[in-house]
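## tool: complex_structure
## caller: assistant
## args:
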Amino acid sequence: MSAYTSFLEQTELIEKLLISLNSGLILLDKDENVIFVNKWVIDSCPEIDSAIPQQKFLDIFPELKSGRVYEAIVNAGINGFPSIVSNALNRHPFPFYNPIKLIKSNDLQKSERIFQAIHIVPIGLSRQSNYCAIFINDVSPSVMREDALKKQVEKKQLAVRELDQQKKLFEAGPSVVFKLDYRDGYPVEYVSPNLYEQFFYHAEDIIDNNFHFMDFIHADDVRGYQDHILVNIETDVDHFEQEYRIIDGQGGIRWVNDFTTVIRKEDGQISYFHGYLIDVSEHKLIEKQIKKQAFYDSLTSLPNRRMLTERLNQDISRARRHKFYNALLFMDLDNFKYINDSLGHGVGDELLVEVAKRITDRIRLEDMAARIGGDEFVIVLSELDKDMEQAAVKGQIIADSLRAKLSASYSIRGNELHTSPSIGVVIFPRPGDESQKIIQNADTAMYHAKAAGRNDVRFFTEEMQLAADNRLHLEKNLRMAVTNQELCLVYQPQVAKGGEVLACESLVRWIKDNKIISPADFIPVAEETGIIIDIGEWVVQESCRQFKAWQQLHLKNAIQHIAVNISPKQFRDSNFIQFVENTLRYHQMEPSELELEITEGIVIADVEDTIEKMKQLKAMGVRLAMDDFGTGYSSLSYLKNLPLDVLKIDQSFIRDASKDPNDKAIVSTIISMAKHLKMVTVAEGIEEKSVLNHLSREGCSIFQGYYISKPITGEEFSNFLKSWDGSLLF
Ligand SMILES: [Mg+2]
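## result:
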């Protein structure tokens, strides 16, 4: 300061200097009283201002009493040496001194300020130090920053430690941790080492050999597993859980609970799956047992009433959806109480078990039998027919056959027991139907059956009863048709390419009360009830008799053989071969004079058995024809194994065989294939000459149809043979 400035100017200058100072200055006297603070201090911590002049510095900041700041102040006061407390804030924030903490408001978080004494200087007016100047700085922002940073680092370290611990804990536990690549089949990128303890695979093998996770999943669950993932991913669900089966390293099946988390890249694309598996096989087993106890009858192992109600509800909605009719049969054993009372519960229980077995044997896999009380059983027959009356008819057939089966005698603990069921039938669903109502209605119908004299079947509604009655009536009449001589045969000629009549096919008709009943109406009933065996035998015998009769007439055009249709049930009858042999012998016919027409359905039902029977017939010398060829599910592989003489092309291809390009192609393929297999082809259903000509050109050798003759009686056929000159063909 220059000597030219006056004392006043100097004072003002010093004051302004102190005001403009960008740090705090606190001046203490030798007794450590605060005697001056600059504006910076007043602005930063007003408490200090109000403390002046009486208060001691350390009374304002008592927490400094034992620290390095205090030491420095004491040193400054006593020894007069300047003391640099800290100039190394960045390296060591606080090791050398206690920070001066000032709290400016009640909001601690926001207003806690930390000051640093950067310089503590003794100021002596003589040799003795009389005053002490403390220069302070506000270091709150940097300290807080450091603090936050430190906390962050600590937090991270803690998280890593926790994660590590969790992983160890996890891997020591039953959960198998995995990481899967999001690619086809989900290649396994990581799997925890406890995999072996849990599922008998070595984790290293899995990783080293690039195994795909999908390879471990049970074949039946692969689709469900995949679908579950897709559904969740599509709906942006990144954590999901599912249950499925896997195959363990020893080939066992294990149920697992899978908790998967989808890990995505920054752009949202999936990069991998993370998750863990828990073996829940044991829970599943228990669950199954519980379910079994809750839903199944412990005596017969059939579903109980609860299960029945549940299934019935599903059946009702499924039938409504697919527009099908089902039947519910309510059944009760007629004299069960008597058996139980006289022979004891043990015998009664065994009888119930046997009844349950007989019921289960009779119904199809898709049907359900339940035991809902003492001797009460309910049977649900699914998807019987789209037509209600037909469903009633089919329900009746099954109810009848159950009745017959359950009425057969039982041998239990040396007792021969007899019981029979009374059965009430309801066809459902009808509008407003629900499970309880259906069961109740069937129960009511069952009481009607009991009232009608037991061992009977009754329907709940009149129309169902009527449909069933009509069907029963038809069946009853049909049973009598053979003995009442109501059946007759008509014959349709088969002519060869060259014009000669080679053979004829015999076709059955039923004439009842002067009305012709179509084979389409009675053959299915005959087939279902087994009456077809009687009818079929009659047809074969009558055909042979007629053939022989024509032969004995020595007509101008004698035919070489007669073709007879054989139904599936007839063909599968164990006596069939014997029957054919006996019939031929009885009529003194050459086996080659009889041709049996069978359908593809017969072959499909049991290929092995059919081939065996056909071979026997062939060895006998009987001709064999495949009827309606092309409509079934013929497989060329079995066709070549069948000892067939003839392929009869189905009528549906013949009608338009000269026009429709598809039919044309099919027919010419069948003809050339037959040629290859050394079979002759018969085209039936020929109605026009153009078709006949076309097929003749294609190589078909035998023709049958209205163009040549409709089916006619035996007598008419004799006349046909007499007058036939083959000119129709040319
Ligand atoms: Mg036929």
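## assistant note: Residues 505, 565, 597, 627 surround magnesium ion (CB under 6 Å). The two ends are 148 Å apart (CA to CA). Handing back to user.
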